[in-house]
Specification:
- By secondary structure, the protein is of the alpha+beta class.
- It has a single domain, classed as 5'-nucleotidase,  domain 2 (Alpha-Beta Complex), CATH 3.90.780.10.
- Helix content is about 40%, strand content about 20%.
- The strands form 3 sheets. The protein has a 5-stranded mixed sheet.
- The termini are far apart.
């Protein structure tokens, strides 16, 4: 009887310890929240600790971003169905795509949504290029069958245009791409075309899903932004300013 009582006492003690442990490990917290408006108040009353963190890096970043890498003869802004800046952007990707992948490219396509600011006339700084192309997209090479290229241009037409390089001519009629010409020749549905783009587009971004059917896909470690900077620096070294390219790549039929 004493033995049974001993085991019963031990069992009750262990149970008590278990519940005590559970009780002490389960803590309740009262959580409250409130909205903090981000307005002019913070310009007049900055947060000292945050200012100190920003100031630590601001001078060095500003000194880099203010570096002049070239000159622009024209003001250029993004827009649809095409503008001088969208045309220029695609032309730069075509040229730099050939250098990056070491082979000829038939044409280039990028999304207008990735071009966020205009290029101002005058000096071009690193900071300006970062503001125009803020995303870390990489150059991408895709080889597409002509029939997929046709579908790609139909999607571009349905979106009222994207950035295409100078080799492309097309007309948008009733939301479809017509009179498609690449490199001076009508689009051939059976030919394989080599296309320079960026990884976001090559992975079907902005509905450009025909890229997913590519017979060959090659990504790179070169950021689009860095490719643009290299292009501008090369033009500067050749003593050429950046000028607005001729338009007429994407026309609309009323």
């Amino acid at each position: 009887m004493k033995t049974s009582y001993h085991f019963l006492s031990c069992g009750l003690a262990a149970t008590a310890l278990l519940f005590t442990a559970c009780a002490t490990s389960r803590q309740e917290y009262k959580i409250t929240s409130s909205l903090i408006p981000v307005d002019a108040h913070w310009e007049k009353t900055p947060e000292p600790q945050m200012e100190a963190i920003v100031d630590k890096y601001k001078a060095s970043v500003d000194s880099i971003m203010s570096i002049v890498i070239g000159q622009s003869n024209d003001y250029m802004a993004p827009g649809r169905p095409e503008t001088t800046l969208t045309d220029l952007s695609a032309d730069m990707i075509k040229v730099q795509g050939e250098k990056t992948f070491g082979e000829p490219v038939d044409f280039a396509v990028i999304n207008i949504g990735g071009i966020r600011n205009p290029l101002m006339q005058g000096e071009i700084t690193l900071g300006e290029i970062y503001s125009i192309f803020p995303f870390d997209n990489t150059l991408f090479l895709a080889k597409l069958k002509g029939s997929d290229v046709r579908e790609l241009f139909n999607i571009i037409a349905s979106r009222n245009g994207e950035a295409v390089s100078r080799e492309v001519r097309m007309t948008i009629a009733d939301g479809k791409a017509t009179h498609i010409v690449i490199g001076g020749q009508p689009l051939d549905d059976n030919r394989i075309y080599t296309v320079a783009t960026i990884d976001y587009v090559a992975n079907g971004g902005d509905h450009m899903t025909p890229f997913l059917n590519a017979v060959e896909r090659r990504n790179s470690s070169t950021f689009m932004r860095d490719a643009v900077i290299s292009y501008i620096r090369e033009e500067t070294q050749a003593k050429r300013a950046i000028s607005a390219p001729a338009q007429g790549r994407i026309t609309t039929s009323n």
